[in-house]
Amino acid sequence: MTSINSMTLEVSNLTKTYWTSNSRFPGGGIQPISFSLKAGTFFTLLGPSGCGKTTTLRCIAGLEIPDDGRLSLGPTTFFDGASNSNLPLNQRNIGMVFQSYAIWPHMTVFENVAFPLRVRSQLKLSAAKITEMVREALNTVGLSGYENRSATQLSGGQQQRVALARAIVRQPGLLLLDEPLSNLDALLRDEMRNELKRLQKQIGITTVYVTHDQHEALEMSDIIAVINAGMLEQMGPPREIYNRPRNAFVAGFMGATNLLPAKLGESAGTGDYRTITLDSGEVIKACFPYPIAANSKIAVSIRPESVSLAAPGTAVPEGYNALEGSVLSSGFLGNIVRYTIQLCSNRIQVHQPADIHFNDGDRIAVHFSPEKSLGLSDERRTA
Amino acid sequence: MTDAVQVNQVRRAAPRRTGSWRGSGIKLYLPVVALTILIAAFVLPPAVMLIQTSLTDYTNPDGGYSLENFARLLEDPALYISAFNSVLFAAGATIVSLVVGASVAWVVERTNAPFKQLALATTVVSLGTPAILYVSAWVFLLGRAGPVNATWRALTGSKDTIVNVYSIPGMMLVEGLLWVPLVFLLCGATFKRQNADLEEAARMSGASVFNTVMRVSLPLAKPALLGLSIFIFIRNIEAFDVPVLLGTPGGVKLLTSDVYLAMTRVPPDLGHSSSFAVVLIVFVSVLLYFYGRISRNADRYASVTGKGFRPRPFDLGRYRWVGGMVILLNFLMVLALPLAAMLWNSVTPFVRAFEIRALSSLTLKNYAVILSDPYYLGLAFNTILASAAAATVVVAVTALGSWFAVRKFPGSQLIEQFASIPIIFPGIVLGVAMIQLALRTPFGLYGSIWLIVIAFIIRYMPYGMRYAQPGVMQIHRELEEAAGIAGATQRSIFRRVVLPLLSPALIAGWLFIFLLAAKELSIAVLLSSTSSKTIAVAMFNQWTNGQPGEVAALGILWTILMSLCATVMIVLTRKDSKSEGAL
Ligand SMILES: Nc1ncnc2c1ncn2[C@@H]1O[C@H](COP(=O)(O)OP(=O)(O)O)[C@@H](O)[C@H]1O
Ligand SMILES: [Mg+2]
Hints:
Chain A is of the alpha+beta class.
């Protein structure tokens, strides 16, 4: 699998709305979404179930006709709403792995993988060439020697590999993966995660990956796009998404966090530190990674691991926020202890090293750095 | 809210794209439209023809269209007597087949009773046996000189008979037993899908076996059973064999036999039989409407089943033998007795009762005649040709048709409707319509075997859909989408992915249609000529000419052949667990 013709994927203002027959409002879909992927990028669409990830992927694949926008891969235009042109999916030269794997049960492993080569008669491949390409694809995914197995006799992980081999066998310009790991058990999922990433780098193919699992997204991606209710919330490298979430939704979706609601008096600029009064009345200092207009609803996001607990009256580290509360409950997780702390009216989760111990009901001081207290927009989009 | 409205307006302004991933435009429309026209060309002419004839007053042929036939029909008290008889007969027969068939199905599918294989074997053999054979067997068993009445006389010393098979109760019994195998298969599918957890929960709560069955199992199966009973009722209203073979000699008139008699009168009364037929169609359509509504509800009930459920048989405990008895009794009534009677008849030179001294006169002459006479070979050839040709055309058309319809190809909306139209034609009605069509076609269709083939195609089109449609639904969409992405055209998706995956359902459907067509009497009896006779028609003629020995021998041989086909079909449908057999 060398000489892969890796290409740039351009998506601009892609729109697709599903209308149910008797409603005046859309029943789902995606709002205009745009992104541009450099050749070889591992790009992940991340979001909760039903947010429109699959819809986006199916539009790129050609399984759905978008309402509007433009799609192109390298020099080929897949879809252009303006000129109403649509390239049929069987001429797009992309590989796709479906959530159900979609392995044809009446064919052997070899025949499954050979299918994309056989149905394109214009390629005019000789039988020997087909055999060679299939062997190579199966070799890449680690399934050499399984050629003559019936596809139905394989385990979940092996079926997954067949689906992958079938997707890459004719060296497509783009690889699409729709929650490929969600049907595997936990152990296999971890293994396949690494394997997939390694394969993608080895082949160097531009990849669009769909998942609802933020750990998968963080570990595997070059770029993550977080989608919520059909809208793109934030796009960027994993570290940026995790450390500087665009808004409260992204912060909440990218791992555990505490969101303390507040109202912003005057507007804040990028990188500003502001002292704000939470809705509960407590006053803290927070950092604003993005500009926010005056009088916006915001939420202050504090990750559980950024908080430390101390006995009341302990000295507060220089510049830190300090709040008072009591321990509601605690759970021992091995490496850490997870506490639920009751503040004035909010409850927060706190992770502490296992060697520090507090009892339920203890009064306690909560310390955290303003740098780790992110003031984020929390405007609900539609009521 | 304002946001949503805005979104709404934005969307509405955006262009609506036509087409799907399967493509768009003429290339996609053309095959769909062509198939729709083909189906319509089969199913619409008979309907039009029937209505046209029913509106033509043959006593005054130049008078244009009139409702004269209907007026005459509705004035005739005979119509009401026939309708009443038909309903009574159908209701009784439905009860017989449902009680027997459902009990056996429940015992086989849900309990640990012995002899389960026997129930299946009974069904397999009966599915392939022409109705006329059963009828002749029962006539022998229950006739004046038959063993039942003979025993009765011997026991009581009276000169009377205890049963009269040429009466409505006798007809109910025979017709009811005829439908037991199908009820068994369809009920079995329902019971198999029932979640055993629900029954076990009832048992855990302290209910007895009887209480569990009455309070849990039966209510759960009720919608499905109700749908099934309407379906069997419709089939019984349309029944032809028993009404003609038992009703007519016994002076009991039914709607279907009236249509037949009006057609075979000299000269045939086309207008009368057509308007009769239209009345019958209206009747059946009303019933089908209710059937459709009920079976939709039944599907909702059936989806109660959850993931990972596996039906566990009910432990009957000490009462296992009762279950075994039910199966044995079914075997006796549905298979062993009639088959024994046929065998007996086939080896006796003339009809005589079961007697020890008759043993000396046993002969294989009937078999010798049948196996040596090329006439019979011709019959078998005609029957197999007509049934196989019809089954092949139906399966081919409906495989493609259901793929178009289930995958919602543009323009495919009418396919399912058209293909279902023939379900409202009782066989005899279709026969009447086809005769009229054939009389008007210039190219010698009348009396040819192809006329029968066409009639069979029309008749079994809905059955083909019944097999092919669930088959397509079972194919996961992504299997087709993956093929599309791999670069396949729609044509090669159908050929390389859909067709192979559909083939078990198609083969089972083909065999089912073949079996039904091979024993179909009501259509063939009107359409066949001397050169295009089928086995069922030949048996009917022999029977009415009083050659029961040859009927029996021919029947036994034919039953063996057809049972082999039925075995293949059952094996295939059982393997394909989700297909429930066609209605
Ligand atoms: N064919 C369809 N018709 C109508 N609504 C659909 C269709 N496919 C998806 N939707 C709706 O669009 C939304 C997004 O679906 P999808 O893209 O499948 O979400 P996910 O992010 O879980 O993959 C959902 O609300 C879903 O109900
Ligand atoms: Mg999805």
